Amino acid sequence: MSLNNLEPQFHKAYLALLEKFNTNPFTFEEAEKVLEEASKSLGVKFSNKKEVLSELEKAGLLEKRPYEKDKRKKIYRLKENPVLKKEKLGKDELINLLKEGADIIRTAVDYKVLLLFLFYKAVSDKYLREVKKLQEERPGVNIEKLYKIANTRILNLYDTDNNKLLVWHEVKNEPAEFINALNRIVELNRDKLNRLDELIKRTGLPSLFEGENSVIVKRLINLFSRVDFSEFEYDILGDAYEWILYYFAPSKAKEGEVYTPIEVSRLIANLIEPQGEEIILDPACGSASMLIEQYLYAKKKDENTNITLIGQERNEVTAVLAELNFILHGIKNAKVFIGDSLLNPKFEEYIRTYNPDGEADKVVANPPWNQKKVYNETTLKQNPKHRDIFEFGYTTDQSADWAWIQLINYYAKKKAGIVIDSGALFRGGREKSIRENFVKKDLIDCVILLPEKIFYNTQAPGVIIILNKEKPEERKNKVLFINASKEYIPHPEEKKLNKLSDENIKKIAEAYREFKELEGFSRIVDTDEIKRNEYNLNVSLYVSPIDEEEKIDLNEEFRKLEELNREYTERFKKVEEYIREVLRIFGGLS
C-alpha cells in the first residue's frame, strides 16, 4: 500500500509524524503527543494512537523494534515513502499540498506567505534542475561557472560576490539565513523582483520565525520541502499560484482586496483574441491574472507566441504578487509598474521601446468600480497628458468609471476589454456626455451584461465593454448588445456565488465574433437608436432574456381539478354528517 491509498486520517497522521521526526526514531509516547497536537491543528481526531501506528506499519511506512533500554517497549521509525519522494505529481496533488498549507496557516498568518513560499521553493528547484542539466551537458566544468549560467536562465540565486548559493534547501533550517537569502535575492534581481522585500516586510515574515508562529512557519517549510517543484511545468506552477489567490479571494474581498474571477479574464481573452507579438496592457493589473489569461490564450493558439505583457498597479505589494505570478508562469516578456495609472501612466515610455507611438495593441482591465471622492477634474489634470487622454471630458468625484475607460481607450491601438460597473452605462451628467462621444466616434463594439453574483466583492452583475478602433465595415455605426445575465452555473465551492462555465464563455464569445443576433440573448443596434435613447447603453433596454413559458397540459390540469372537486365533495359530506349528528343529539334537528 502507498501513502496515497491510505484513509485520509492515516495519511495526515503519517505527514504529521514525518514533519516532526523525519526518519529519526521515536517512542510511542512521543508519537502520541505529536498526534494529539495534530488532532487540534488539523481538525482530525486520532482517537486510537496504536491503531494509527498499526495502519502505517501495514502500509510499509513504519518499522518497529524493541527499545534497547526497555525490551518491553518498542521504538518506531518512519520509512520515507518512495511515492511521495519520487513520483511525478500532477496538478491535483499540488493543489492538495496547497490546501494543507492553507489549513496550517488558517487565520494566524497572512495568506501571501503561501505565495512567497511557493515562489521561493519553485524557483529554487527549477534552478537546481537547470544546474544538474548543465552538469550533464558540460562535465568537468567548474560548478561556480554553471551557477552563473543558471543565474541567466532562471534567476540570480548564486551570489557571485560572496560565493554563496541562495536556494531553499541551503537555508530552510536557519530562520536568519532564510530571511537573509530572500533579501539578497531581491538585491540581485531588482529588474524582475522590484519590491519583493516589501512583500516580505508586509507579511511580517521575519517576525513569524519567532514566538508561537514559528511552529506554523516550520510546518510550512517542511510541507513545501516534501515536493520537488522542478517536476512541474510552469503552467501548472502558475495555476497553483492562481489557486491560492482564488482560494482566499472570497474572504479577502471583505477586507477590500479585489480579484477578478479567472473565468471573466478568460472571457475577455476570447473576446479580444491576443496573438503573435502583440503588446497587451492592463493599467490596473492587480496580481496580473487577467494579463496572464491573455498570454495563455495566445500560447494555446501558437506555442511560440512572443506576446508582451505590461501592467501597472497602485498597490506595491499587489504589484509584487504580479511579478511572482509572471515568473511562476514562465513568462519572460512581462513588466509591472507601480503607481496610479490615471495620474501617472508610467508604462508609456516602456511601451515606446516596442511601439514608437506609445500605444499597446490591446488593453484589458478590471479597474476599481465607481470610485467616489478619489478623482475629479482637478486631480485628473495632474496627468501630464490629461488633455489628450480625457478628450471627451473629466469625470466628477462621484465616479471614475469613464476616466478609466478614456485612459484605456487612449492607450489601445486596436481593441480593449473592460470590466466595469453597470451604472456606467446609463448614469447622467458628465458621464452621459462622455458616453455620447464614445458612441458618436463609433468606438464601442459590444456591451455585455454579466450574471449577478460572480464577483467576490459585490453581488452586482457588472458589464464588459469592448472597444474597437478597427471595426470592419459591417460593424460600423453599430453596437452588439449581449444579455448574458442567465449564462451561469452555481459556483462549485461558494454557495452564494455563481460562475461562468466553459459553455457560457463559448456562447458569449461566438455571438461576439460572429456578430450575430440570438433572440433574448444578443442584438445588433444602430447608433441612431442609441441616440434616440439619449445614449443609454443599458443592455436590458435593447435585449432581455425570454421568460420560459410554462407548458400546460389541459387534460392533466382538468384531471387534477376533477380530483380536487371529488375530494372536496367527499369531505363536505363527512362534515355535513357530523353536524347533523351533533344537532340531532342536542335536539336541533328531527
Topology of this structure?
Blueprint (H helix, E strand, L loop, with lengths): L7 H14 L4 E2 H15 L6 H10 L3 E6 L2 E9 L3 H5 L4 H15 L6 H26 L5 H11 L4 E2 L4 E2 L2 H4 L3 H14 L7 H7 L2 H4 L4 H13 L8 H20 L8 H11 L6 E4 L6 H13 L6 E6 L2 H13 L5 E5 L8 H6 L7 E6 L11 H4 L5 H4 L11 H11 E9 L9 H11 L3 E6 L13 E6 L9 E6 L5 E2 L7 E2 L2 H13 L7 E5 H6 L6 H4 L11 H32 L5
Architecture overview:
With 590 residues, the protein is of the alpha/beta class. It has four domains: 3-86, Arc Repressor Mutant, subunit A (Orthogonal Bundle); 91-232; 241-542, Vaccinia Virus protein VP39 (Rossmann fold, 3-Layer(aba) Sandwich); 550-590. A nine-stranded mixed β-sheet has the order 8-7-6-9-10-12-11-13-16. Strands 1-3-2 form a three-stranded antiparallel β-sheet. The protein starts with 7 loop residues before the first helix and ends in a 5-residue tail after the last helix.
When the domains are counted, the total is 4
CATH superfamily (homologous) name of the largest domain? Vaccinia Virus protein VP39
Helix content: 40-55%
Distance between the termini: 88 Å
Q: Can you tell me the CATH class of the largest domain?
A: Alpha Beta
Unreliable stretches (pLDDT < 50, length at least 5) are 82-87
Number of helices: 25
Write out the strand line-up for the largest beta sheet, numbering strands in chain order: 8-7-6-9-10-12-11-13-16
Q: What Rg do the Cα atoms give?
A: 31 Å
Mean pLDDT: 89
* Overall geometry: flat
